[in-house]
Amino acid sequence: MNVPSVLRPLASMATTSMPPSTAVRSFTTSVSHAKEIKNITVFGAGLMGAGIAQVLAHKGKYNVTLSDVTDKALSNGQTIISKSLSRIARKSMADSGAEEQEAFVKSIVDSIKVTTDPVEAVEQTDLVIEAIIENVAIKKDLFGFLDTKAPDHAIFASNTSSLSITDVAEATKRKDRFGGFHAFNPVPQMKLVEVIRTNDTSDETFDSLYEVAKRMGKTPVACVDSPGFIVNRLLVPYMFEAIRLVERGEASIQDVDTAMKLGAGYPMGPFELADLVGLDTLSHIAKGWRETRVKTGEISAEAVKESSLLEERVKEGRLGKKSGAKGGFYEYPAGK
Ligand code: CAA
To answer: For 189-202, how does the pLDDT look when each residue is reduced to its tens digit (9 = 90+)?
Structure first.
């Protein structure tokens, strides 16, 4: 099997479980080129951005700045972080009193600097991780602007789950210092980060992103810049096939989920997972792939064919867990 040159084997990858036929050959002779990262800026205080900022500060002990366009978005991000840390404190500090648990939560939330000023956010940054809306033009606008404001040495990374990193990096003059850093929802719990390299990503950039993922307590895996990388390349067609199975009347939503949990050992069925990911996100990824990746032959048209069951729910604002009582494929009454 031909290994793409961008998947250059690394010393730091030796602990991962890549199959021998791919990248194991020269693990022992490769050296990590990671450079020291101290200050990290996360753009986007939604579920993903907040989760990444939280783990960078809590587990990675980095100096973290979280930036978004409004104070409301930032305070929403802080709420997400507080709730998640409280959950962690309840488990890991079960023997401590409520006051100590609250102090732990507060110390981490307070350690994350927040700002709506993008220039201030990147003034002293070593790494920018972007987790804003999945829109290539908006991401390019942000990175194009930051390219002129961030220190020259700073690495840029996108947490995009479905867009081309190569495309987004085009907006900057630092394509060698640009890569993908794809975390998973819920970030504090999911152990994986996909580190993505383009043809231009330097070894130093790739290794640095890899090291950051490890310092966050995550297991990084390497992937070339390709649609959906590893996880979404497999998960998106899987969720669409589950939806089509129900559309064809072959089984109910509940039974498909039960089947995949009990028959395949998945922690969630495909409809529960779609509700977690967000039906709008799922629809958006598939639409983007239909428009850009089907004609290149990277994704088959059948795999991401538009689904009326999905689109109807999106139109009704039933977007999944985030829509609360309205739900998506399931409903989520308050407190659930
Ligand atoms: N913050 C901190 N901890 C959290 C958390 C959060 N936001 N969410 C869950 N947890 C922790 C819980 O505290 C609990 O911890 P312990 O094991 O220490 O008890 C653990 O996770 C399990 O949580 P629960 O007991 O509440 O619930 P569960 O057992 O049903 O697990 C789940 C929930 C972790 C979400 C699990 O169902 C799961 O792994 N589901 C699959 C999720 C998945 O596939 N995510 C990827 C989505 S695709 C994606 O993200 C890519 C994209 O770009 C679209």
So the answer is: 999 999 999 999 99
